[in-house]
Write a structure and sequence with these properties.
279 residues; 9 helices; 9 strands; seven-stranded mixed beta sheet
């Protein structure tokens, strides 16, 4: 394994019950980023999946796999992956791989050129959204929830960001660790806290246009219910921001990490040995 600090790119993919799609996402990332001519590391963090996600990933050559003993949330999976990334440029992306060619490079290249924190946006000029006819219902729900949520964020938080929830972000590894250590929400609202932490630390955030393609998939998204849940979570985050919480690391993370490591060790001790790639 390369030494931390060597030139290269680490891509963190948080995954939960993603056995059916994770290999395709890995292939998309590899095919696009190999063209940059830099060492590439892909770290898949299995967030306590109940399907065969870990087993599928363990069969893919040269992929690092981190297992979670239970489902703690996307924010926790990203935190684990960033903390154990090897290279100085780190990107994280969704396991379902909705991003069109060029999107991964769009967020990573500015970081390679010195930008500390770059986020993708599906709402900037130059972005595009392709929708399979069978996925219209899924895409419409995501779009409506996204619009409602962005308006709430703009009203309640000091963030002039067009797309806080885009699942494609990149940063310098040292910056990513500083930001992730300040997260309190370990699930889907952690993106907002990353941005608030950047604001608290005076780290500039660059938005770039990215494009997505939505395919038909089962979803539990419920417009009214999810807006209420996300709204309540956002107000809690706004209160933390008002109190200045994001200027300081979250002291609870180290305790959760120690607990999770013990649980994983216990769980893996009772399972068949998988692969030396499993960390």
């Amino acid at each position: 394994m390369a030494q931390v600090g060597e030139s290269g790119i680490s891509v963190v993919i948080p995954a939960y019950n993603a056995a059916a799609e994770i290999c395709e996402t890995i292939q998309k990332v590899q095919s696009e980023l190999f063209g940059l001519g830099l060492p590439l590391e892909i770290v898949v963090v299995d967030d306590g999946s109940s399907d065969a996600t870990s087993e599928v990933v363990s069969q893919v050559p040269s992929i690092r796999l981190l297992r979670g003993a239970c489902n703690r949330g996307k924010g926790w999976a990203v935190y684990r992956g960033v903390a154990q990334a090897t290279f100085p440029t780190v990107c994280f992306t969704d396991a379902d791989g909705p991003f069109l060619p060029g999107s991964y490079r769009a967020v990573i290249e500015p970081v390679l050129q010195g930008a500390p924190f770059v986020i993708g946006s599906r709402r900037l000029p130059g972005s595009a959204m392709l929708v399979n006819m069978g996925a219209l219902n899924y895409a419409a729900r995501r779009h409506l929830i996204g619009i409602a949520f962005n308006r709430l964020v703009r009203l309640s938080l000091p963030l002039a960001i067009t797309d806080t929830q885009c699942g494609l972000k990149a940063f310098q590894r040292s910056v990513g660790i500083e930001l992730c250590q300040r997260v309190r929400s370990l699930r889907y609202l952690f993106d907002i806290e990353l941005l608030l932490a950047a604001r608290a630390l005076g780290i500039p955030v660059t938005e770039v246009a990215v494009s997505v393609a939505y395919r038909d998939r089962k979803t539990s998204l419920r417009l009214f219910r999810d807006c209420l849940v996300m709204g309540a979570g956002t107000l809690a985050i706004a209160w933390r921001a008002y109190r200045g919480s994001y200027q300081q690391p979250n002291s609870k993370l180290s305790k959760i990490e120690a607990q999770d490591a013990a649980l994983v060790a216990g769980r893996l001790g009772t399972m068949p040995r998988q692969s030396s790639k499993v960390v």
